[in-house]
Amino acid sequence: MRKLGLVAVTMLAGAAALGMAGRGGSDEVSQGGATITGKVKFTGTKPAMPAIDMSEEAKCKAKYTATPHEEMVVVNPNGTLANVFVYVKAGLPAGGTYPTPATPVVLDQDGCRYHPHVFGIQVGQTMQIKNSDGILHNIKAKGVKNRPFNISQPSVMTSDRTFSAPEVMVPLECNVHGWMHAWAGVLPHPYFAVSGADGSYTIKGLPPGTYTIEAWHEKYGLQTATVTVTAGGSKSQDFTFAAH
Amino acid sequence: MHWWLPLQASTFAKPIDGLFVAILIITGIAFVVVEAGLIWFIFRYRQRPGRKAYYTHGNNRAEVIWTTIPAVTVVVLGLFSNHYWVQIKGRNSVPPNAYPIGIHAKQFEWRITYPGADGKLGTADDFTVRNQLHVPVGRPIEVHLSSEDVIHSFFVPQLRVRQDVVPGMDIKAWFQATVTGDFELGCSQLCGMGHYKMRARVTVHTQADFDAWMKATQEGAGS
Amino acid sequence: MTTAAAPHAMPHAGHGPTSFWRKYIFSTDHKIIGIQFLFVSLFFLLVGGILAMQIRWQLGFPGRPMPGGGILPETMAPGGVILPEYYIQLVTMHGTFMVFFAIMPLLVGVYANFLIPLKIGAHDMAFPRINMASFWAAFLAGMIMLAGFFVPDGPSRAGWTMYAPLSASAEYSGVSTGQILWCLSIVVLGLSSILGSLNYITTIINNRAPGMTWFRMPLSVWALFITAILGLLALPVLSGAGIMLLFDQTIGTHFFDPAAGGQALLWQHLFWFFGHPEVYILILPAMGMVSDIISNGSRKPIFGYHSMVFAIVAIAFLGWIVWGHHMFVSGMNPTLGSTFMVSTLAIAVPSAIKTFNWMGTMWRGNLRFHVPMMNAVGFVSMFVIGGLSGIYMAATPLDMFIHDTYFIVAHIHYVLFGGSLFALFGAFTYWYPKMFGRMMSERWGKIHFWLTFLFYNATFFPMHILGMGGAMRRIYDPTQYDFLKPYQPLNQFISISAFLLFATQIIFIVNFVGSLFRGKKAPANPWDDNGLEWTLPNPAPHGNWEKPPTVYRGPYEFSSPEVAEDYLPQTRKLPTDREPVLAPAAGD
C-alpha cells in the first residue's frame, strides 16, 4: 500500500488534492476525462430529526449554540438532499487499476459528531480518524467485506486505518455517544462523490463509456441510472429521493 | 478524599454501614488477636541456645474453642445479614408504591425512561433521556433494568445500591433516597473499552423539583 | 501397593538418561519436570508483573505517556499513552497469567511434582510420561496465551473472568483471534492439569514408602493431594465452558447469547463452579508448605495435625458450594444468595482453625528465623487479612456495596500475593538446596522479604480504602468520576509502592539466579528437617532412592524428648520403633 501511495504522489505531483478527498476522489484524476454531474433532489415533507441530548457531554455541548440534531436526513435550504453517496457502480474497463491517493481522508469527531457524515474512500487509502473533542470516542467499523475494527480515542489524537476491500457502505459508529454514525463508501477507483450543501455532486476524469451510476442514501436507499459519456464530455444526471 | 464510607443517601445505607462496622469490629478483634499473638511469639519464643521447644502435638480443648467461636460468630453474622438481604433484594422486597423508572444499558450509555405524568412505564407519555437519572427524595424507586448487549452493572455508591444488568433478563431493583443532591451512577461490570465512560448523573430532587424537571424535560423532548 | 511392588520400568537411582535432551528437556524425572515448571512459571510471574506495572502507571498517571511505552505499537499505546482497549487487555492478561500460568503452576506444577515423590518416599510419579506430557501441555498453553499479544487486535478484552456475552462476541469486545486463543489455551491448560492431577492422586495413593501411613504424611502432601482432587474435578468444568465459549465464537452456537435463546448467567455459573475450587487450588498447597516450614522454624510438632488435615478436607468440600458468592448481585435468585452466604461464612471456620493451629505451633517454640520461616510467618499474618476481608463480601447486603470495587481487588491480592506468593518465596528458599544443591543468600533473602512485606502492604492495603469509597474495578481512568477524583493521590501512592514492590523482586531474581552458580554448597540437611527428602543427596539423583526408605513416624517430631537433637527424621529408627508392615493396603 505504501508503495502504491508513493507512485500516486509522483503521478499527482502538482495536482492539488486538499482535504476534500472525501467529497471527491475524482479531483485527483487526470484532467481531460469526462464528467458526470447533477443534483440530488428531495420531494415530500422533510422529516424531523431527533434532537441530540448532549447535556452529559459538556465539552461537546459547548460547541453548539442551537440544539444539535441527528443527521440521518439532511435536506438543504434549496430543497436538495445532502449526504448522498454517488458512485460508478459498473462500466469501468475490466482490469483497470487506479492509484491510491496519498492524501488521507480525514474523519473528524468534533462536537460529538462525525465530519463528514458520509464519505468515499479508496481501497488502501488512509482514513485519518481525528478526535477533536478530547473526550472518549470509540470508532467501531462494522464492515462485512472489510475486517471489522473497534478502536478508542480517549483524548485529542489521530489514528490511521485503511480498508482492504470495496464495500458500499461501511457503517461507523461510536458507542459512547449512541447518536454518532458515519458511513464510508469504499471503492477500488476514484469515481465517487457525495452531495454537498447545495445538493450537487460531480464525478470527474472518467474515461469515455457507459456507466451504471448508483446513489446511496442512509435512509432512502439506492437509486441507479445509466449514463454514457464521451471523451472530455460532460453529462448531467439528477436523482430524486422522495420522503416516506 | 474520604477515609470512610461515602455519604449515606438512601435507606439502605444505615443497615449496610452498620453491618460494615459490626464486621469491622469482629474482624478487627480477630486481626489484633492474631497479629499481636504472632508478634508476641516472635519475640517471646525466638531461638535461644540450649533451649528446646515445648513438645506437644496439640490440645483438643483449644481446637474446640477456636472452632466454636468462629462458627458461632459467623452464624450470628449470617442471620443478621440475611435479615437485611431479604429487605433489600428479596423477591417481595419492592414496596408496592414504588415509582418505576426504566433503565436500558448499552455499550456505553444509560438510556433512562421515565413514566411521565401517569406514573406508568410502557405508556405514550414515557420519555427517555441519556445518562441522567432523576429521582424524587423519600419515595421508593423501582428500576427496571435491561441490557442491549453485554452485562453492565447499575451502581450508585451513595445510595448503596448495585445490581447487574443482564441481557435477556428483566431485573428489578429498588432504593429510596433520603437526601437530595447530585451523585454519579457508574457501570461496575466490565462491559468493553468504554466501560470507564459509562457514567450517568444522578439527581435526587424534592418531589416538587422532580415534578418540575419532568414537566420541563417532557416538553423539551417533544421538540 | 508399595514401592517394592512398583512397576519394573522404574529406573534405579542415579541411572537416569544421560543425553541432554532426555535429561533436561524431555525428562520424565519428576524433579526435573518440577524445575521446568519453576522456570516457565517464574517467567510468567514476571510477565504478569510487567503487565501489572502498566496497569498501575495508567491508574496513577492516567493519560500520561508511560516511560518506555513508546516501544508498544500504535494499537496499544500510541506515543506511550495506554489506550482503553489495551488497558482492558492488561487487566485481562494480568489476571489470566497470574492465576493460570504463575500461581497455579508454581504451587501445583512445581511443588506437587517436586515434593510428592520425595516426601512420600517414591522413586518417581506413578506415570512419568504422563507427567512429562502435562508439563509440555502447560507450556504449549502458555505460549498460545502469550501469542495473543502478537495477533491483530491483541489478546482478549473481557477480563480474566471472561464474562459472556462480552467474551462471546467480537462485536462487543472488538477482539476475535485473541479471544479464540484464550479459549484454546485454557482448554489445553485444562488437559495439562487433569493429567497432572491424575498422576498426583495415583502416586500418593499407591507409591508411599513402607511405614508412610496417611497420617504420617506431611501437611504439604495432604494439601497437594486434596488440591489434585479439586483440580481433577474443577478443571474439566473450565475446559467445558471454554469449549462452549469457543464454539460461540467460531461455529455459531449460542450458549451464552440471550438474543438467540442462550443464557448470559450460564457462563458465570460454570466459571465460578470451577473458579471457587480454583481459589483453593491456589491457596491449599501454600497452606501445606507453610505448615511444614512453620513446624520446622518453630522446632515444634505442628499443633493439631489432625485438625489441620480435616480443615483442608473441609475447605475442599465447602469450596464446591460457595461459587454463588461471586454472583450475589448478578441477577441470580436472591434466595440462592442467602444459601451461598451461609456456605461462604462457614468456610471461614476451617480457615480460622488453620490460623490458630499455626499460632499454636509457634507458641512455646524455639523460633529459628531463617528466610523460609520469615516468609511463612508473613504468609500467616497476611492471609489473615485476606481471609478476614472475605467476611465483608460474604455478608450479602454489604457485598452489594463493595462487590466489583477495589475492596475485592485488595482481598484477592491479600490472598494470592500476601498468601500464596509469600508461601512460595518461603518454599523457593526452603527447597532450593534440594533442587540445585546450593543455598540462596540468607542476607539478600531477608532484605527481599522485608522490602516485599513493606511495599506489598503499601500497595494493597490502601485499596481497601478505595473500595470503601466505591472505586470500581477495571476502570481505565478513575478521574472520569467526580467522586473518585479526590482519591487520585492515593492511587499515585499505590502506584509508586507497586513500582517499588516490582523493583524489589529484582533482588529475588538476582539471588535466585546468582545462587545457581555462586550459592554456598548446601549441607545434606540444611534446615535440620525430618522429611524424607533430606535423606537424599542435594540435588537428588534420578529415581531418588536405591531402596525405598522406611518411615517410623510423622514428619513433625521436633524437640522430641526421646533424642538429644531438636529434630527426629522420619527414617531414623529408635529402639522402641517397630518395623512397619511392608505392604499397607492401598488407601489405608
Give the secondary structure arrangement, pairings included:
The complex is a heterotrimer of chains A (244), B (223) and C (588).
Chain A: H1 2-11, E1 34-43, H2 58-61, E2 85-90, E3 105-110, E4 113-115, E5 118-122, E6 127-131, E7 137-141, E8 149-153, E9 157-161, E10 167-173, E11 181-187, E12 192-194, E13 200-206, E14 209-217, E15 221-229, E16 234-236, E17 239-242
Parallel strand pairs in A: 1-16, 1-17, 3-6, 5-11
Antiparallel strand pairs in A: 1-13, 2-12, 2-14, 3-4, 6-9, 7-8, 7-10, 10-11, 14-15
Chain B: H1 13-44, H2 60-89, E1 99-106, E2 109-114, E3 127-130, E4 132-136, E5 140-147, E6 152-156, E7 161-165, E8 171-176, E9 181-187, E10 199-205, H3 207-221
Parallel strand pairs in B: 1-5, 4-10
Antiparallel strand pairs in B: 1-2, 2-3, 5-8, 6-7, 6-9, 9-10
Chain C: H1 20-25, H2 30-60, H3 84-120, H4 128-147, H5 170-173, H6 177-206, H7 219-250, H8 264-281, H9 284-298, H10 305-318, H11 334-346, H12 348-362, H13 371-394, H14 396-402, H15 406-436, H16 442-468, H17 488-518
Helix pairs in contact in C: 2-3, 2-4, 2-17, 3-4, 3-6, 3-7, 3-15, 4-6, 6-7, 7-8, 7-9, 7-10, 9-12, 9-13, 9-15, 10-12, 12-13, 13-15, 13-16, 15-16, 16-17
